[in-house]
TrEMBL record, chain B:
Molecular function GO labels: transferase activity
Domain (PTS EIIA type-2) ranges: 1-147
Cleavable signal peptide: none
Pfam family of the protein (one): PTS_EIIA_2
PANTHER family registered for this protein in UniProt: PHOSPHOTRANSFERASE SYSTEM MANNITOL_FRUCTOSE-SPECIFIC IIA DOMAIN CONTAINING PROTEIN, PTS SYSTEM FRUCTOSE-LIKE EIIA COMPONENT-RELATED
Keyword Protein biosynthesis: no
Protein name: Phosphoenolpyruvate-dependent sugar phosphotransferase system, EIIA 2
Keywords from the named record: Pyruvate, Transferase
Amino acid sequence: MKTIMVVCGSGIATSTVAEGKIRDYLQSKGDLDKVKIYKGNIAQYVNNVDDYDVFVSTVVVPDNIKDKVINAVPLLTGINTDKVYEQIMDKLGFEK
Amino acid sequence: MLFDQNVILFDKEASDKQEALSILADSLYKAGSVTEEFKPAILKRESNFPTALNTETIGVAIPHTDADKVITPQIGFMRLKTPVKFLQMGDNSEVQVKLIFMLALKKSDDQLKMLQTLMGLFQDKETLAKLETINDKDEFIKIMENVGIIK
């Protein structure tokens, strides 16, 4: 089972929206049952980036983990969403 | 209901984001929707985790904070007369914000749908354009009903 962590500042608001979008996308690809999606706030999980196959954030993350984290803001604005899904699928090793 | 306290403000003037956020947070406090700690928490959170989003047409912001500062779920709306500078969520780039939706939310799955709908609204240029021009609360409520934010 692959794992995705979706974080925002609170773990309630925008991470929930981003999680919903990712869930819908994976469902449309028939991959949802291969993935476990978690949600939380950045402060709590900032040191656990490597524990997940994919780490997605709607908030700015510290520079030292920046390269490992996918920016999920496009999932909120609807602008350039494809790029986010592509990055997620790459990290999961699933076909796009 | 999310707008029943009528915190719907048009063409407010604010010199910066702190002032804009304060006006809206004070209104939610006066309406009894949030605790006294809500405003300082909103301001702190906005500086730690900016909440502005650039839509295709205008800048919007969705300031929010922890659920324990919320008494009854409510959304405060404010349109600024002149946009003020916020930072974009996720990358800290500059956004000139015209519309603010201040979210006073409790933790609950019901709100997921509402948030998704709100994000959908940000992708709907026609409705955003309407929100830029309307001047009355009833019209605002009607738009919120039409897009499904109020059921």
